[in-house]
Amino acid sequence: MKIRLASDLITDSIVDGPGLRTVIFTQGCKHKCKGCHNPQTHDFNAGFEVKVDDIINKVKTLKLQRGITLSGGDPFEQAQPLIKICKEAKKLNLDVWAYTGYTFEEIMKNDNPNHKDWIELLKNIDVLVDGRFIQEKKDISIKFRGSKNQRILDVKRSLIEKRPVILKQYQD
Question: Signal peptide location in the record (predicted)?
């Protein structure tokens, strides 16, 4: 199984979630938000393919990282390969954060043709930063988000309660 990435793994990020993190920048995004921080990740045909097992082997070598972060592009556009990566990260006691332009509510919709894969990916994520970037709501003073409309969600509680549950420790 392969995944299309926008760049090599970033193994020492401190801005894509708490602690030292490894970031996987996926390639491909339908949202194309005005003012996006990563516009080079929008084209589904750009970037390069890599074997999922190669990413997993790299993640297994990590020593000081608290977790991995899925970014992009939009990770939900490549849910199947990311499910496998996330499951392996969890076995290594790494937490998983994901950034998506989709809202929790959009991911949960049953009429979504990708519903099954998206829910499976969601079940393997600890924290979801959801919502499209809105340039008019950009705020560089807020933690781990680009615009004020985006939410930092506790995925496990959100799935149990069937509604978005905001992680209060990251709210400004």
Answer: none
Q: What amino acid is encoded at 112 in this protein?
A: N
Find the helix packing angle between 115-123 and 79-91, rounded to 10°.
Answer: 20
Distance (Å, whole) CA 124 – CA 117: 11
Q: Where are the domains of the chain?
A: 2-170
Tokens of 111: 């009429």
Q: Which residue has the tokens 């969890």?
A: 90
pLDDT at 172 over 70: no
- Quote the CA–CA distance of 57 and 134 in Å, as a whole number: 36
125-146 pLDDT, tens digit per residue, is 999 999 999 999 999 999 999 9
Collect all residues with Cβ–Cβ distance below 8 Å to 32 and sequence separation of at least 6.
39, 42
φ, ψ for residue 24, nearest 5 deg: -110, 110
Architecture of the 2-170 domain: Alpha-Beta Barrel (3.20)
In this prediction the pTM is 0.95
